Amino acid sequence: MDIRLITWTPNPEKTVATAARLCYSSISASEIAEEISEEKVESLTEMLIQKGHESPLEHASFTFAIDGVSRALSHQLVRHRIASYSQKSQRYVDEKAFKWVTPPSIEKSPAARNIYYAQIGAVRQAYASLCAAVPREDARYILPNACETSLVMTMNARSLLHFFRVRGCQKAQWEIRSLAGMMLEEVRKVAPVLFKNAGPACKIGEGCPEGEATCGLQGFDKQGG
Predict the structure, then answer these.
(1) What average pLDDT is seen over the chain?
(2) Which end of the chain is less congested by CB atoms within 10 angstroms, N or C?
(3) Pick the catalytic residue: 91, 167, 177, 188?
């Protein structure tokens, strides 16, 4: 899995703070942007997140190049609808030599790994045979969720905070949880204040929202039960 932040809103925290301050100011946004101090940007950004006033965060966006993940992950990823996605097309890209993702539970079991690799090989052969007989867009139906794929994904800061909260949770599926962790490392490099306290509820000092379904790492729900 290779995750890279390839572009983002310039001065994302300043952009967020400027948008927030405009709501209560008689001067223009451009004037606010010229005069607002770094200290004010930091304090205002932290206050917005702490109080849950998150709409100004939508003015800052972040674009990631995501490679070496499975189609199974991408099916989960696109459920986050306030985002933009571009994905490698199996309709147009030849997948005869497709790479694949192997879950750790399969990799560590010799018996499971043998079954898995044998079936991957069989699918590769079947796909190649189908491509010789039917259009590639039809042959692709046989390809597995394990197929590696590549995406470009753009999310705003508000959507990312939600993404990190639910996909960073220990109960999230292992692959997308790894993705969330790597994405969080990337955005913290360019917007450390915005994402200082990002992550699952148990990691940022809040109660587990899973209640009785908690993974057990955090023993209390929101009501302290």
Answers:
(1) 92
(2) C
(3) 167
